[in-house]
Amino acid sequence: MNDYYQYEQYQRPQYVRSARITWGVQRLILLNTLVFAGQLLVDIPLGGFSLHGTGLLPPGGIVNQLFAFQPSAFAAGALWKPFTYMFLHGGLMHLFLNMLWLFFFGPDVERALGTRQFIRFYVLCGAVAVLATFVTRALFGHAVSVTGASGAVMGIMVAFAMANPEREFFLFPFPFRVNARALVIIVVGMNVLTALQPGGNTSVATHFGGMLVGYGYMKAMPRFRRWQLSMRRRQSGPRDPMDAAREAVDNIFEFEEKKRPR
């Protein structure tokens, strides 16, 4: 990872690299929190909220009707819904868990991608992930309405595991350390078990969609960067000194054991 931090010295100032939480992650958490507060402010006066065991829930409010994702509405022309649903949440616990995972995994991914690309990655994972609900609708005929950042967060978790596969941490309630690669396997298993339970209200298809988008993006990014570098070399001639640093970062995601440029 030394090459990665060497690359960071060229790309971002010191205070950004040393901060535990990065700028993009901060703003995404703040945005999701403000949107949830807006849901409550709009839906409470209209009677579109209720109290459940997980906290304040606005499941049938006007905000959800307009901006949550439903496959039928999207097919009928509501093309904004894949981009808006991910900022809505069904309750305080739903919001808290998604933001906790974003806080934990997001900063490392943002440092690797850069803030602009990280935010694009977040939105792309969320927007494409929810389209997987068309598969479950076709197979099982489920009429779903999806809210939450889970699809985007699952993509970020996979990106984190690809960049740091051996990073270890404690995962409650397990009394032992697990690495990032094992965490992905555990999360996949938990989602499979959730999908097998009848009457669940979790969009497992969106979770798997986010994982696949995150994996595909992180595998494709080094190839795209190499293509960009080759095109730049053809146009400019001499090799850009920053190219070596960019290639070193790409190698992190490809797990290449070759010697990296110093």
- How large, in whole angstroms, is the Cα Rg? 20 Å
Residue share in helix: 55-70%
* Strand line-up across the major sheet: 1-2
Low-confidence stretches: 1-18, 51-55, 255-262
Number of strands: 4
Distance between the termini: 12 Å
Round the mean pLDDT to the nearest integer and report it: 81
**Which H/E pattern describes the elements?**
HHHEEHHHHHHHEEHHH
Output the number of helix runs: 13
Please indicate the count of domains.
1
CATH class: Mainly Alpha
Largest sheet: 2 strands, antiparallel
CATH architecture: Up-down Bundle
**Structural class by sheet pairing and helices:** mainly alpha
CATH topology: Rhomboid-like fold
Q: Shape from CA axes?
A: globular
CATH evolutionary superfamily: Rhomboid-like
Please report which band the strand proportion falls in: under 5%, 5-15%, 15-25%, 25-35%, 35-45% or over 45%.
under 5%
